[in-house]
Amino acid sequence: MVTHYNLQNHEKILTLDEIDFLQGRVKSKTRLAYFMENPNKLKKKYIDALNAITINLDVNKFDMKTPEFIKVETERDNYNEEVKRLDEIEKSQIN
What we know:
- The structure is a single chain.
- The chain is mainly α and about 100 residues long.
- Helices cover about 60% and strands about 5% of the residues.
- It has two domains: about 1-60, no CATH class; about 60-95.
- The protein has a two-stranded antiparallel sheet.
- The chain is elongated and about 75 Å long.
């Protein structure tokens, strides 16, 4: 799957519609009825564009955390600690 395409020279090699097609984006039903990609032509253009295409399989969505996400994570951790503390108090009162 194409995950990134250098858009600086995209007009010379692939159109945005072709890039969308290669990335698996679906055209509307109307566009599909009137416009069909030529697979052989698209294959040649794809091969010509390989130097501008990056396939990145090592992407981890959680490598970059927004401040909001970090805040929610901290709140969750604090909540879990409080629940654990209350469970321990409850257990000690039962025994």
